[in-house]
Structures are given as C-alpha cells and as structure tokens.
UniProtKB/TrEMBL annotation:
It catalyses: an acyl-CoA + a 1,2-diacyl-sn-glycerol = a triacyl-sn-glycerol + CoA. GO terms for cellular component: plasma membrane. Keywords: Acyltransferase, Glycerol metabolism, Lipid biosynthesis, Lipid metabolism, Transferase. It comes from the Bacteria. Pathway: Lipid metabolism; Glycerolipid metabolism; triacylglycerol biosynthesis. It comes from Streptomyces gardneri. The lineage of its organism: Bacteria, Bacillati, Actinomycetota, Actinomycetes, Kitasatosporales. One of its GO terms (molecular function) is diacylglycerol O-acyltransferase activity. Pfam families: WS_DGAT_C (PF06974), WS_DGAT_cat (PF03007). SUPFAM superfamilies: CoA-dependent acyltransferases. This is Diacylglycerol O-acyltransferase. Residues 7-260 form the O-acyltransferase WSD1-like N-terminal domain. Residues 305-450 form the O-acyltransferase WSD1 C-terminal domain.
Amino acid sequence: MSSSELLAPLDLAFWHLESPTHPLHLGALVHFGPVPAAPGHEPPVDVLELLARRAAAVPRLRMRVRDVLIPVGGAAWSADPDFDVRRHVREITLPGADFPAEATRIAAELMESPVERGLPPWEMYLLTGAPDGSFAVLVKLHHALADGMRAVAIGAGIFDEIAAGRRPARRPRPVPPRSWLPGPGRLLDLARDRLDDLGRAVEVGASVVGASVVRAGRLDAPATALTAESSGTRRLATATLPLDRVHRIRRTTGGTANDVLLAVTAGALRRWFDGRGLPLPGADPRALVPVSRRRPGAAPGSGPGNSLSGYLLDLPVTEADPAARLAAVRHAMDRNKAAGPSKGAGAVALLADRLPPLAHRFGAPLASGAARLLFDLLVTQVPLPRSALSLGGAPLRALFPMAPLARGQSLAVAMSPYGGQVHVGLVADGEAVPDLDALAAAFTAELDLLDP
C-alpha cells in the first residue's frame, strides 16, 4: 500500500455513517487450542507479543484516516507517524469456569464501543484464562478498512502459516511532486468520466428507489422483533453446524451450500418467533445477502477497500415446511443471480461508488436510516482459507465472524466454514434481542429438520 491513498467512495460512506452510539466495525471471535509445550529449554511462546508483532507487520494496519483538501469532502489513508501497536493489541484474563461463554460475553461488550478514529481503525484482544490453556482473539476492523473478504486477508497475517510466507515489505518509491490541477486533456477525460458515472448512477438509483417503493408499499410491516432504534448495546451468540451435513442436503436438493444455510436461517427465525410467543410476521423478513465484486481468481485481499454488492432475499419464515423453505430460497437466489447485483438493495453499494466525496460527508445523516427501508437483517458468508491455521503453534478451533448492524436493525448473521464446520456468529442489539442464545440454538434444530 502506498504512503497515502484516497478512500474509495464506499469506504468513505462507511466512515461517515458511523456515530458514537452506532459503531460500524466488523469482527471475529477466534478460538485457539493450547500452545504446545516448547521443546527443550526454550521459553514458551508469548502469544500477546507474537500477536502484536505480526499485526504490526501488516502494512494496512498501520494506516489511519485523515481529511484532505482535494477532492473536497474526501479523506485518505496515510501512515500513522506515531503508530504504537500496544494501543491496539491488549490482553484480558477471564474467569476460566466457562471460558467460551465468558469470551462471548466480553466480546459483546468490546464490540459496543467504536474504534478510535484518530488511530488506525482496528483493535485486537487476546482473551486468556481457560483452564486447559486454550485462548481466544477478538478482532475489530472498521468497515471502511475492509469488507469481509479483505478482513480475512488482513487478519490472516497473524497466523503462523501466512506470517511464515510473508515477503518483506517494499520501501515505497518516492513520487515526484505534481500539480493537482489537471491539464486540458485530463479535464476532457474527467468530464467524460463524470457523464458516464451520472448515467450509471441514474440507472442504479432507479433500482434502489424501485426496491424502496416496493418495500414501503407492502401492506404488512416488517417483523418488529428484527427492527429497533439502536440502544448502543450488543449481544453475541454462536452456533456450529457440521459442514458435511450441509453438503449432503445440497447434493440431495440442488442449489448451493449458501442456499441451505439461508434456508436454515429462515427456519431458525421461524422457530425463534414461535419460542418468543410472537405471531409470525405478515410478510417474510427481507435479508440483504452481500456479494463480493472482486474479480474471479483475484486474491481475497486484492484491491484496496470494500468491493461488494448484494442481493435482496425474502426469507420464507411464514412457510411451515422446511423443504419448501429451501426450495423457495433456491429459486429466489437463482433469480437474483440471473438479474445481477446491480438490482435491489445491492445497488446501494454501487450507487455509493458514483457519488462525490462531499455527498458522503453531508448525506450520511440522511442515508443512515435508509437500510430499514430496504431490508430487515443482514445474512452474510465469509470464506476462510481451507488449510489448517494456527497461532504460535496453537491450532485454530473455530472462527465466528461478526457483521455490523445497520441502523434501525436488531440482528446480523455471519457464517464461516472452516475445518469441516460452519461457524455462525450472531450480532444483535442487546436490548432488542436479549434472548439471542435461543436463536443460536435454533440453527442446529433447523438443520436437523432438513437432514434428519
């Protein structure tokens, strides 16, 4: 990464959408087994020191956001001259009686607070105290810094296998100073680009407005259990599903593993509504399913910033039959893929790429409440490397991804397959969804219905 780089439009949008009571970072709670005993008389691995050293070696994690004069309203990534990794990597010792539950509880508390905006926008916490020597790491990355796939690429730098193969960072080449005033030829190119952007923005904007009108025109209000004003609190819960069972269902019914997981999510929500004693919503809750726009074959972390779009999906919560729920999800996702990601809610991300920086800076207060007009919850899948990973020799046991909550929404679902399992991370508003553990348990029960 260069010593200074403008924030891409979508990154700038995420940066300005955040508020002190509504943080906009994503994260992961990563569980590791015990560090193996050091051979001979070698000192044991200091995991905190190792974590800090490897995080500091990731160039992206040394960059902070600063305002710039040109373009007006813009911002840029620049190297933090006073970077101190100890301000970002900390250790917390937990009671060991039920370490996984304690780790989830403290992670929820830590996810409530925004990262410090004057520093590189990320934090890592080493969580220790388990009787068997196992530990966990909580990672927080501001959404302006990375989308899900890039977060994996950035965070992977802490693992033994990736750190061992990392090449020494190249010293950036000096760039000769040049005027920021474009020449006549460049002015003509800029004019053509702006006209092209305007045409694409109009097309994409029509898709967004159309989706909003259809949404607002539905007679039934969205499920109130999934929407709430932000309380500033967070609750986390996790579930683990056997990946071989997901693939067995996929082979039997067709479609993709993601279709199966979306159907399981719909069934879990239905079971959760029932367990709460709530009537089913009059209309199925609508999910935003993010889609990466990185080119096929590109490395997961290639290219700066966020590169994503999304599909709208009405989760068939009102359908009683599990097989019919899966069929409905599969058919809806097939239609979404045939139409492409420039339609519906995914077009919001595409539209952000066409707006000037000043529009993001001053339009953020208006745009912050737009999500609830388009969808009720986020459901995303974050791919991980297939190879076995470790930290200081301690094997990675589970990685539970955590997606940010959109303003006015109470629940976000993120899933990552690794080591033959699908790890489900649920993030909820702590006051709106105090019974998040019940929803997490419903994921396993719903998988059992599809694969008895």
